[in-house]
From TrEMBL:
Cited Gene3D superfamilies: PAS domain (3.30.450.20)
PAS domain location: 4-65
Organism the protein comes from: Qipengyuania benthica
Origin: domain of life: Bacteria
Protein name as annotated: PAS domain-containing protein
Amino acid sequence: MSEERYRTLFQAMEDGFLLIGAAGTEDPSRFRFLEANPAADRMLGSSLEGELLDEANSPFEPPLFPEVRQALDEGKPRRATVQLKDSGRWLDLGISPLPGDRAAVSFRDVTSMKELEHRLAHLPEQSDQ
């Protein structure tokens, strides 16, 4: 498959995709957003490409970098569910380690599923009233 075809697929994906890489050797918990597709920018509310990812400026709650660090250290994919601080939206993430202290992060918005889970969890309380 050609670079152009991969780029077209990357741009057209419905799921968000981020390529994250180590920001440097001085602090292994800091990463940089290397690349983001349009779906990621849309779900996150802005482009994070080139931005640092650390505890202070993470748009995610809980912060994403411990999950990325663990996936890289273990060399195994991980899943996580995080909430966006600004919008309160929930994302289901798949974090895949890549060579060169990088990770591919794909995600989709699962806010409506989380809201439904919350309503169902409180359904017995409502029926008792």
